[in-house]
Amino acid sequence: MARYLVYNLSGELDDISYLFPNERLGRLAALAGVEGVAVDVLDRANLKDLLAFGPGFMKNLGELGFADSNEQHAAGVREEAERILDSGCTALFLNLWHGTGFKFSVDLACELRRRRRDLAIYGVGQKIDWYKEHILRLTGDSIDGLITGLGYNAARHLLRGGAAADCPDFITQQDGRIRINRRETLNVDDYPAATYDPAVYRQIAAKVPLYTITLSNQACPNRCVFCVRPENYGRVNVRRDLRSVVAELRHLRFERGVRHFRIEDSTPPPQAMTELARGILASDLAGQISLSGFARVDSNSREDFGLLRAAGFRALFFGIESLDDENLRRIRKGTSYRAIHDTLRAAHEAGVATVGSFIFPLPRETRATMDNTLRRLDEIRPWLDSLLAFPACVYPPTDWGRNPARYGIRLDADYIEKFVVYPLKYLLPLKYWPPAPFRYSVMGCDLETMDFKRDVFGVYDEFTAHVKELGIPFIPDYYYLLAEIMGQDPVAATRQLVQAMIARDYAAIRQALLPG
Fold this sequence. Notes:
pyruvate-formate lyase- activating enzyme, 22 helices
């Protein structure tokens, strides 16, 4: 009899969101149940298992290179493989995370393959969005295939015993040759809502009680040059039926006691959040829940932010990237400084905290574009509650990755091999990050002599110093919800959680977010 295990180990706790219940894993489990397949979710990104592994194990994992090992790590992989095989599973949905979680998962897949050649192992998750088929080249025959995007079409096909050759949204490798199957438009409402039943999702009580909700199939019709989403999720956005979204929220609120939710769509369909707010206010959810989520200025500038606030929206994350119109045109962002200014002001004045995300510096950033962004940052400061910023990252499925020379980017000869295992240490200052395996022109520097730490990290430090002078904090949107859970000011709550993550003090995180 087929028995599936849905598995996740995120590795080092680089962001508190790793501890949220994983909707995609829950949906995969629910889908297996509908198809009559026995299933369990083993999600190690929870506070009980982190305490069991211990900070020493995670520190050791974080310090290992991708190809490196030592007895502590090897023993952990062997023990986990034994637990998985003892479960009796015949197939594995393996969530491939970035950083140390990716390393552990790949080593685990290799160990499982060594012990059980017949165990089917399918990769899912964010790492596939970023690197796709290149993961198979890196991992040999340890993984049977990769599911792209949300992948519920592919998962159903595999759960029904379908052949890999016919599986949609699937990448395989045979005899060293990569095969990328057809992409199929997904309607999320064709699939069951995620299960968080503790009999299936066994670690759910040790997860932070902030749940994600989707409003669509997460496809994106836009063509931003830096974004992987259209390549993986498609460009045909299929909205969920409002009734199914409200029903899911009601089940989680009244059956599981959940009060805090994050909208997961990076491009919510226009007016979808306003429609959701009306649905909440017309139901018994009114006054019962708090939400945050993504938003795009071009797609969501006309949402009724006052209605969102009344329905419980606390914060929205806007991908701004730059405040210079020439920069925005070059990255095909589809918006303008004036639209950014007006949208942030409308949301903030309605009482919704605004979080702006910047890519700084962008390829071909100049002193003039930088000064323009800094000047305009002063102008929007009254309506910008928080700001997140990182230098540009170049991923293979993007236009930057496919056509680097067009944008003043040069990829190292071993770019894929290095970047697929590049450690994104979000909690540490950039000076502790290794140089990226690519380079791009900033401030007119010559690519031949360009030094990543000097030329990219240097102007990044200038930018963030100005942000600090303006007094803009670094708070992701979902930290406003965590602050509610903790009963604290968002700045204080963020500082407390970040300090605990840096110290690997999992007990302090548990006390702050799961005090019961």
